[in-house]
């Protein structure tokens, strides 16, 4: 994905150690509606995973789950990475999306 221009390597501090992670590029950010729509499709057409439910897409702008990829199905706002979280119940966490080039995870 780095070679394809979708991810870039980024150094970050992990408790005094410099580590390397990956951050989305602008090209990857443009794929967000497609990825979200695929996640929604998977929720509708695949069995519920054991150990938790399907991944849910949360629009942080209104705090509600959305069932559309480009605009929030609850409030109608356009979905942008900075206002989206992917709730992963099987991992017991919610990952907040960030703008291209940023690196952080909400737990």
Question: Secondary structure elements and their pairing?
Answer:
Blueprint lengths: L6 E7 L4 E7 L1 H4 L2 H14 L10 E4 L4 E3 L17 E5 L4 E4 L11
Antiparallel strand pairs: 1-2, 3-4, 3-5, 5-6
Outline the structure in words:
It comes from Janibacter hoylei PVAS-1. This is HxlR family transcriptional regulator. The protein has one domain. A hairpin with a 4-residue loop joins strand 5 (84-88) and strand 6. It has a 4-stranded antiparallel beta sheet with strand order 4-3-5-6, with helices on one face. It contains 2 helices and 6 strands; from the N terminus they run E-E-H-H-E-E-E-E. By secondary structure, the chain is α+β, with helices and mostly antiparallel strands. The two termini are 25 Å apart.
Characteristic terms for this protein:
globular; 107 residues; alpha+beta
Topology order in helix (H) and strand (E) letters: EEHHEEEE
Oligomerization state: single chain
- Neighbour order of strands in the largest sheet: 4-3-5-6
| Number of helical segments with 4 or more residues | 2
Helix content: 10-25%
Structural class: alpha+beta
Mean pLDDT equals 83
What is the count of β-strands? 6
Distance between the ends: 25 Å
Radius of gyration: 15 Å
Uncertain runs with pLDDT below 50, 5 residues or more?
none
Shape type: globular
**Domains counted in the coordinates: how many?**
1
